[in-house]
Design a protein that fits this description.
Length: about 280
């Protein structure tokens, strides 16, 4: 008897994430990464030689992406953020699914990708961007060093981020054809670590890990973190650097018209012959 796959670990408190996203909108969201991603999304779609009539935007914060796609896609359904990771999308109802800077806070990303794959018509496209790679590595290192010095141990501060290889494998696992991943590294400079943390608050991107510390951080620890950040990651003018790796992922719902890999042994010419021919 086949056993059910193990449940995905619950890393993120998505109810708290919803609260933080709402607070960011009330206080005036910092949208520079979203704006950059939306512009890049439009450029990438324009490079695809086909039109899209039925699309869904999955959990992108704010309305910027939908506005950027207006006039370029027939209609865009907005899948609003909820605590649940279940998507109310009908099977084979879409020819395009997009998402910007939301998937990094998903507990069961393979499950979400599989749901999107089922919602796409044959030859439908998923195009998404999420934070990954070395995003906020400077903040992670500075907090870890400060807590080790001031409190004798580190607590989870910055979410774990997936890398390109992991995401490409997840696309294949979810049943997407022709999966592609690449990364856009954005380095933002700030006056201090506290200015960076204020922007993260205005992005709704502060710590929502379930295993986060639930007591206030000591003032001495925060000050030492900012000091270490400046010592290790400041430019000559004193401004600090913060890395954001925007990982792009795309894949197609399988269709018979798509190119297929050659079967083993089906090549018309041997590698040996090609090498010999190149030496003439």
């Amino acid at each position: 008897m086949a056993s059910n796959p193990p449940a995905a670990p619950i890393l993120f408190d998505r109810a708290l994430l919803g609260v933080r996203l709402a607070r960011a909108q009330r206080e005036g969201a910092a949208t520079f990464l979203l704006d950059r991603t939306a512009e890049d999304m439009v450029d990438r779609l324009q490079a695809v030689s086909r039109s899209f009539t039925a699309a869904a935007d999955v959990w992108t914060p704010g309305a910027g992406l939908v506005e950027a796609l207006h006039g370029r896609v027939g209609s865009v359904e907005t899948v609003a953020f909820t605590d649940s990771e279940s998507l109310a999308l009908l099977p084979e109802s879409l020819d395009l699914a997009v998402s910007a800077l939301a998937f990094q806070f998903v507990n069961d990303l393979p499950g979400v990708l599989a749901q999107i794959r089922r919602a796409l018509k044959p030859d439908g496209l998923l195009l998404a961007a999420m934070l990954g790679g070395d995003t906020l590595t400077e903040l992670r290192q500075s907090f870890a060093a400060a807590e080790a010095e001031c409190e004798g141990g580190a607590s989870p501060r910055v979410a774990p981020f997936a890398d390109l290889r992991d995401i490409g494998a997840l696309l294949q696992r979810a049943g997407f054809a022709l999966p592609v991943t690449d990364v856009d590294r954005v380095v933002v400079r700030y006056a201090s670590a506290f200015a960076l943390m204020q922007d993260l608050r205005r992005m709704g991107a502060t710590n929502v890990l379930r295993e986060r510390r639930h007591t206030p951080t000591r003032r001495a620890t925060m000050l030492r973190m900012a000091e270490i950040y400046g010592e290790r990651f400041a430019d000559p003018d004193g401004r600090i650097r913060a890395t954001f790796d925007i990982v792009w992922l795309s894949g197609w719902a399988p269709h018979e018209s798509q190119p297929k890999p050659l079967k083993p042994g089906s090549a018309k010419a041997s590698l040996e012959a090609a090498v010999k021919g190149s030496k003439r």
